[in-house]
Amino acid sequence: xxxxxxxxxxxxxxQKILKGLNLTINSGEVHAIMGPNGxxxxxxxxxxxxxxxxxxxxxxxxFKGKDFLQLEANERAGEGVFLGFQYPVEIPGVSNLNxxxxxxxxxxxxxxxxxMAAIDFLKLIxxxxxxxxxxxxxLKRAVNVGFSGGEKKRNEMVQMALLDPIFSVLDETDSGLxxxxxxxxxEGINRMRDPKKSILVITHYQRLLDYVVPDFVHVLANGKxxxxxxxxxxxxxxxxxxxxxxxxxxxx
Amino acid sequence: xxxxxHFDGANYxxxxxAASTELPGSSVAWLNDLRQSSMTAFENVGLPGPKVEExxxxxxxxxxxxxxxxxxESSSQDLQIDNLCDKEFLxxxxxxxxxxxxxxxxxxxxxxxxxxxxxxxxxxxxxxxGPKDAQRxxxxxxxKSSLNALNAALMSDGVVLIVEQGVKLSEPIQIIHxxxxxxxxxxxxxxxxxxxxxxxxxxxxxxxxxxxxVDCWSHTVSEINVADGASLEIYQFQNExxxxxxxxxxxxxxxxxxxxxxxxxNIGGRLSRTEIKPTLKGINSKIExxxxxxxxxxxxxxxxxxxxxxxxxxxxxxxxxxxxxKGGKSAFQGKVYVAKDAQLTNANQSNKNLILERGxxxxxxxxxxxxxDDVKCSHGxxxxxxxxxxxxxxxxxxxDQAAAKALLVEAFIAEVYEDVVLEPVKCKYLDLARKWLExxx
Lengths: 252, 441
Description:
Chain A has helices spanning 41-49, 73-78, 96-110, 118-131, 137-140, 149-163, 179-191, 231-240; strands at 3-12, 15-25, 30-34, 54-63, 66-67, 81-84, 91-95, 142-143, 167-171, 198-202, 216-221, 224-229. Chain A is α/β, with parallel strands linked by helices. Chain A has one domain: P-loop containing nucleotide triphosphate hydrolases (Rossmann fold, 3-Layer(aba) Sandwich). In chain A, the strands form 3 sheets. In chain A, strands 6-9-10-3-11-12 form a 6-stranded mixed beta sheet, with helices on both faces. In chain A, strands 2-1-4-5 form a 4-stranded antiparallel beta sheet. A two-stranded antiparallel ribbon of chain A has the order 7-8. In chain B, the strands form 3 sheets. In chain B, strands 3, 6, 7, 9, 11, 13, 15, 17, 19 and 21 form a 10-stranded mixed beta sheet that branches. A 10-stranded mixed beta sheet of chain B has the order 5-4-8-10-12-14-16-18-20-22, with helices on one face. Chain B starts with 5 loop residues before the first strand and ends with a helix.
């Protein structure tokens, strides 16, 4: 078992957002979480990755048998978790290359490995950028500063490819993308598919799931998972919307 | 009598009279007259108090009693000085070096080997060798600042740098001030005269190095002329000891078609005041002032700039950044005067401050006095904390809290020095900032 979330309750600024969420993800699985606005989708991704201000008032998150709630965000990254942001943050003054090197070496340090030699790092990052069709010039620019929406998401994919996580959470990575950018992002995600790795795709639309076909689809509404199924559920939601789902999670 | 809101300067008159026979050049009559008239000018105004608008962020109450005495040359020498130099940095920069130890020229550490087209010598030597030339040079400017007058009255030594017409220096010249334990309870007053003649160009690296715990007053004035078509760049490092009071005033006259760049980093001192006062007297000239100040508990930095656009078609750019740890204090005061005839002036200033922890104080005060009607002038000031979203973003990529903070703060500072072409200078700025940060985060 990769990730086990049990009875998770999360509050943000005193407001109850998640109210008893359960989710189990095994190695090799791709799960998709869909749901209406305000259902708590982003809160779930932040709770998994350890953002400050997201208070876990009840329940547990266990990753590869470890109690995740005891770990800082950077330690969770060291354990192999990656969060693809809905709105990647701009960091003026820090070059993408320095940022990526610091990230990779921080994670290596956490795992008790030496820093990667500068020349090996450059080879690796150039290869990853090329795979994801990123202009190498973008590596020299400040992180996400002046990047278009598509370029930011592509940058997320390059980071994911470089850090090679065993569990990736992609929080509405598809939002605001044109069809070409969506294809790049989908390819980036599909590259991570592996029997030893798992992926959690959080999305508002079915569109991305045409490219990244999930093993399981869950509907998150009102702080809980109210329905689970296979990829057919995503299609049904696209057609019928969320109105057919009982958002209180009671048996219909 | 002193001016309104000024502290009485009588204690300094006592100091001055007590030191009179020890002052360098005391056998030169005009110099004595100059010292005496400067002392009178100081006495008539007094030390600016905190109610003087320009001094409200640097309280000179600590100088009121005149406890910092004149240090004579024979007492200034210190064998420990070798250990205080940054030898690596000295080695990386190949140009001439003028080193001052506790206010006096230090021959064995300096290297002023003659180059054609430049005069580079310490002030006391210059006065000794050519008192007539020295008299012309020294009588140039009349500053209204009382601290400037006090400096002239009690100056110990300085640099004379004259770069002759059309001469372009290939290497920067270093002026290094080192203050050691011998400086305890003393005032160290240097006075530099820098002339960049027509179409000449030079770069100067001006450093202040001190010993923590040494309570002294390091007080420098630089009088600078940049003639038509000439350019000057100054790179300043203020890394005094943590108990030092540092006051530094640069007065710069700029001719037509000139470029003047001033770049600084303020780290040391318990109270530091950096004044940069360029006057644009010829058209088509450019000024660029930039720098950072890093302030921690018991440590206050005040950067005061006063740019005078007297003629048309000149540009001035200012970019200052402050980083404040708990208990730190800083001020940036950017005064820009645009005279009635100074049409088509571009004058921009920006001051951003980053507060690392609550309990710090950052002051920012733009002051634009615009009397021309066809100008572009702007100013911006911010005070903020580290971006929590950016911190979280970095942490999800594996950086721990301290590393994430350090990366963001370094980036904030590094933007100021981005365009510094001299690589060892840029590295030195970033190294000093990094060391400061390591102690804070």
